[in-house]
């Protein structure tokens, strides 16, 4: 396996996660969750990671995120992974089987598609036993993480209410809430420093207000390019969901309110509410190449009465010329409208 030199290694306290899960359980077990997606997409070796997976037999038509996750686990020596095999990517089940056959301990987690409370409780009970912790310790951690989530909610509100925060800054903080950067104290300190820094910023209210739908994009300079065109992303749908902005006391209700792993009706309801709340002018719906969620674009277009631009990404890299032109034309149309 692999021609990538291990520039970083992780100790046995790290548990890789393939998507957002109830991280309170991992922390309560004395371990540290690590979002494998974030490690892949921010790696300076991300193209090499993809080629490494393809050299192992992954097809070019397999989603780049799946290939990236596999290579991160194998190249960075991650020994234990929680695979979300229900409620995320349909390829994760096969990925988990492959990881197991390569010596990785894989723990599956399934969100019940029908949002059944008893089924979710059963899944969380199983994980609590697996990590030798208790509901009391999990709820202590929920209280701790909710303090940070309140600050993330403030970052989100400052993005669209006071217009002091860029779309990319909003994205990077919210997407990092999937694992709290494996260090809640350090992550909270980073948030506090950022909130202090932006106090002196002057708001900019003269722009086209864009909502971003779908999984985080693999396209570089996406947010910056939109701002060059006098637009701004003031709603990052899925990233906001990672931050559990509902702040419910009941941990089961928290993860039942999380829209991403369930049927699309919950997403549509949330998006409609945010269109009104944030006074959005248009939406950009990003889909990952070879992902089944591309079909949701049909449903979203029928359900949402607002201009929508659909774009697609495959491998990480610069925003391509064709997509850039389509974004420019879309923002021009919204400006003229």
Spell out the blueprint of helices and strands:
Layout: E1 14-17, H1 23-28, E2 32-35, H2 36-41, H3 46-55, H4 64-75, E3 80-86, H5 92-100, E4 105-110, H6 117-130, H7 135-160, H8 167-175, H9 184-197, E5 208-213, E6 219-220, H10 222-228, E7 231-236, H11 237-242, H12 251-257, H13 264-278, E8 282-288, H14 296-303, E9 308-313, E10 317-318, H15 321-336
Task: Characterise this structure.
It is a single chain. With 337 residues, the chain is an alpha/beta fold. It has a domain at 14-135: Rossmann fold. Helix content is 49%, strand content 15%. The protein is built from 15 helices and 10 strands. It has helices at 23-28, 36-41, 46-55, 64-75, 92-100, 117-130, 135-160, 167-175, 184-197, 222-228, 237-242, 251-257, 264-278, 296-303, 321-336; strands at 14-17, 32-35, 80-86, 105-110, 208-213, 219-220, 231-236, 282-288, 308-313, 317-318. α1 (23-28) links the parallel β1 (14-17) and β2. The longest helix has 26 residues, at 135-160. The radius of gyration is 20 Å and the shape is globular. The relative contact order is 0.12. Mean pLDDT is 93; it is low at 3-7.
